[in-house]
Specification:
The protein has 449 residues and is mainly alpha-helical. The chain has one domain. It contains 18 helices and two strands. Strands 1-2 form a two-stranded antiparallel ribbon. The chain is globular and about 75 Å long. The protein starts with a helix and ends with a helix. 52% of the residues are buried.
């Protein structure tokens, strides 16, 4: 009888940041966090690899490495090394934010230049994270909200192209591809509507399984990659030797600043919903440092930058499970998954249209998240001006890249095809120069009239 209170206390530790939880209870909740972001963690690799036209074997290696790196980055975030890591229950994964710019860099300079740009850019953000107390105030909530909204818009065309079968593919828009995309999307939607509780977080995974099964039936899956795949393999270090191009590095460094604003938003939302308190300066600094330096580590395994995942922040808000040990079991599962190449080959064989059916709603939800962030900021005259002008110029001008012809080639490389970078810069500048009391001045003027 004396042990019963202790057993109860262990179970209740799920809702506390620290403390041990019975492994049998911890693992299911940890796996839940992994499953909520599993597809989203791998989709950026598949999209960029497809844009750069890597072969299936290379893509499979990168997918395997991506799972391994995401697990390592999550462990650093949970259990910091020096000042790198926030000590918060944050799951890390490959970032969607960089898909557009890295697809452009990869097609322009080659995939090794992607690795070099991520290596340098990650170190840049990591150092900025360690110095966050000197600059974080310039990234106001309305700046972060404008950037997140633009990211969603920039990814919609990526999702639509995948839905139709993949940009540049000879069968894009074919009946088979449209059928696969539609069935996958409907499966995601059905599961999201009818599943109960946290199971809703698995709607993307459910859609992927349904879409993949249908693709197998229709003969739209290439199984040749499984022929030469071992069951267990150590993640390959430096599968691509990095190359360094100043234009590529500058472009990616700007997006690392954008990613930093997202991380600040994610970690702030997590502490408010999960821990019922404001985030500390130390936690902001640690989370950004982990974002950056873990991204540099990711590049050494041929992967894209890693960052905090909004899906997992939402899951914490729903379940209130914040225990670091519990989340750590999920990170350990990702590391183990990175040791099994068949998983990488499986996702590399996923038809683009199935991936598009899974991601089109996910990309749309990013737009909605940005709008929700804008709503929380408040629609003051100042915020409306910053958001409307930065998003309008960022999305509008980059649809007509000839507008940038008057600028030097470096500026064109960084901004002409990168609506997120343009939005970020315009929002930062407006936030710095616009008066804080715009609303008051308008009210006073109207009163005099």
């Amino acid at each position: 009888m004396a042990e019963k209170p202790n057993s109860k206390a262990d179970i209740l530790n799920i809702y506390k940041l620290d403390g041990r939880v019975p492994v049998g209870r911890a693992i299911p909740f940890g796996l839940q966090h992994v499953l909520a972001m599993f597809v989203a963690n791998l989709a950026p690799i598949i999209i960029v690899a497809g844009a750069v036209k890597l072969d299936p074997a290379q893509t499979a290696v990168l997918i395997q490495n991506a799972m391994f790196v995401a697990g390592i980055a999550s462990l650093i975030q949970l259990y910091p090394l020096w000042r790198i890591g926030s000590r918060l229950p944050i799951i890390m994964g490959v970032s969607f934010t960089f898909v557009t710019i890295l697809s452009y860099v990869g097609t322009t300079y080659g995939y090794p230049s992607v690795i070099g740009a991520v290596l340098i850019g990650g170190a840049f953000e990591g150092c900025l994270g360690l110095l966050a107390k000197y600059w974080k105030k310039i990234i106001a909530p309305v700046v972060a909200a404008s950037v997140v909204t633009t990211i969603g818009f920039s990814l919609l065309i990526v999702g639509a192209s995948s839905f139709a079968g993949g940009a540049g593919k000879p069968d894009i828009g074919s009946p088979t591809n449209m059928l696969l995309g539609t069935v996958t999307l409907l499966a995601c939607l059905f599961f999201n509507v009818f599943a109960k509780s946290y199971w809703k977080q698995l709607s993307v995974l459910f859609g992927l399984v349904v879409g993949y099964a249908l693709a197998c039936i229709l003969g739209a899956v290439d199984f040749s990659g499984f022929a030469n795949t071992g069951f267990i393999s150590i993640p390959r270090f430096l599968p691509f030797a990095p190359e360094f191009h100043f234009g590529a590095i500058a472009s990616v460094a700007v997006i690392f600043l954008v990613s930093a604003t997202e991380t600040i938003g994610d970690t702030s939302a997590m502490t408010m919903t999960g821990l019922n308190r404001e985030i500390t300066e130390k936690e902001i600094s640690g989370s950004l440092a982990c974002d950056g330096f873990a991204s540099s580590i990711s590049s050494l395994f041929g992967c894209l930058p890693v960052t905090s995942f909004s899906q997992n922040v939402g899951l914490i808000a729903m379940t209130r499970v914040v225990n670091r040990f519990t989340i750590m079991t999920g990170a350990a599962c990702m590391i183990l998954a990175g040791l099994f190449p068949p998983l990488g080959v499986f996702f590399a064989s996923l038809p683009d249209s199935v991936l598009g059916g899974c991601t089109i709603m996910m990309f749309g939800s990013i737009v909605v998240s940005g709008v929700q962030m804008l709503t929380r900021c408040g629609f003051t005259q100042r915020n409306v001006t910053i958001a409307s002008l930065s998003i309008g110029i960022g999305v509008g001008f980059t649809q007509v890249p000839e507008l940038f012809n008057i600028f030097p080639s470096l500026v064109r490389e960084v901004f002409a095809n990168n609506c997120v970078a343009v939005t970020f810069v315009i929002a930062i500048v407006l936030n710095l120069i616009l008066p804080k009391d715009m609303e008051i001045k308008i009210i006073q003027r109207d009163a005099k009239a």
